[in-house]
Amino acid sequence: MQPLIDGLIFIVDDDASVREALAWLLRSRRLASEHFGSAEAFEQYLAEAPLPDQPRCLLLDVRMPGMSGLVLFDRLAERGLLAEMPVIFLTGHADVPTAVEAVKRGAFDFCEKPFSDNALVDRIEQALGMSQRALEVQRVRRSLADRIAELTDRERDVMRLVVEGLPNKLIADQLAISVRTVEVHRARVFEKMEVKSAVELANRLREL
Q1: What's in the keyword line of the UniProt record (predicted)?
Q2: Is there a contact between 138 and 83 (Cβ–Cβ < 8 Å)?
Q3: To pair with 37 at 20 to 30 A between CA atoms, which of 24, 62, 97, 183?
Q4: Alpha carbons 59 and 50: distance in angstroms, whole number
Q5: What digits encode the pLDDT tens for the residues 63-102?
């Protein structure tokens, strides 16, 4: 049975029964998951291989032996992973204030144990949507960076001045080249950057 969403949910909780229950819940909603018994185990997973190129989110217990969920959350935040892998904290009643504070610092949400299955899955699907958007932004930026890397130094010079709004004659004067040479470089820049106008080029570059 194929998942409804092409996404992956990571479960990090030291309680095996909680991990199994969550994995079963996600399977019943056709959502793929991987689970870990400690924050250290999840960190090791992250260290060994790049994350899959698909939407993902993290269900993270607040209190665990060894490294706490909060420490792991802070490390993920330092690495800039919270947008592409939103964190939903799983918390007991006593940890609600802590979880609320984590949300203020960038966590996607928290669910208090025992949680509503439907409410949790709804938030997971929303988190996966956020991850998908963040990953798409990253793909666009990588693609733009790759195209810029293909430009010659002179084409970059011309591109910079085109974006500043200078006409070809002034660009030629500043770079001490002919107007015809500017036109050739300009056309190549537009072709490599896959744009048709200076306005579109400026908008593309702002995406970086």
Answers
A1: DNA-binding, Phosphoprotein, Transcription, Transcription regulation
A2: no
A3: 97
A4: 19
A5: 999 999 999 999 999 999 999 999 999 988 778 888 888 8
